[in-house]
Amino acid sequence: MNEPDGDRSRVRDVQEGEVRRNIIDQERKNDPTKRIITFTLNSDGIVLKKFSRSVWISCMVINELPRSVRYDSNNIILCSVTMGGTKPKKQHFQSIIVDWVQELRQLEFGFYISPPNFNGNFTKVHAYLIAATLDKPAQALLLNLNEPTGYYSCVKCTIQGKTNMPTQAQLLN
């Protein structure tokens, strides 16, 4: 497992990021040998107009895997697949997220695995979700925000925003 260093002057892999570093430092205060892995969540949807269907897939990757294999289909953790005539409603998706949160809390407490190089022996691992990669519609859905085109839709601020309607002259140009 790569250990983060303190140099913030260059772009690096998520394995060396501040959030991961803080979790490792905090968790290893009491147990310096604690095995920790971290996840990055991705959620995105697609509308299949030909079939009048919408598919939303949410999955996670294990950040500690080398980048060369991190995104291989065998290493992707499927969290949910939602299908319907339209994008999932926020209320429905929030009920799915409640299940994710319960599962993630259990993973933080630890679980046992038997890696191939452990000769059948088990080791306890603790897992933490540290990041998510989301486009604006997925961000609104997962974080229960207004849609990206609506008022108060920014995750970082509380500015209402405004709508600029083009004039007819602007539309003709």
| Structural class by secondary-structure content | alpha+beta
Overall mean confidence score, pLDDT: 85
Helix content range of the residues, please?
A: 25-40%
Q: Sheet bearing the most strands, described?
A: 5 strands, mixed
Assign an overall shape. Answer: globular
End-to-end separation in angstroms reads 57 Å
- The low-confidence runs, each spanning 5 or more residues with pLDDT under 50, are none
Q: Can you give me a brief rundown of this structure?
A:
This protein has 5 helices and 5 strands, in the order H-E-E-H-E-H-E-E-H-H. The protein is an alpha+beta fold. The N and C termini lie far apart (57 Å).
In words, what does this structure look like?
This protein is of the alpha+beta class and 173 residues long. The protein has a domain of 121 residues. It is 27% helix and 27% strand. It is built from five helices and five strands. Strands 3-2-1-5-4 form a five-stranded mixed β-sheet, with helices on both faces. It is globular and about 70 Å long. It starts with 17 loop residues before the first helix and ends with a helix.
Task: For this entry, give a set of tags.
alpha+beta, 5 helices, 5-stranded mixed beta sheet, 27% helix, 173 residues, single chain
What is this structure's SSE topology?
Elements: H1 18-27, E1 35-48, E2 53-62, H2 67-70, E3 77-84, H3 90-109, E4 111-113, E5 123-134, H4 136-143, H5 168-172
Parallel strand pairs: 1-5
Antiparallel strand pairs: 1-2, 2-3, 4-5
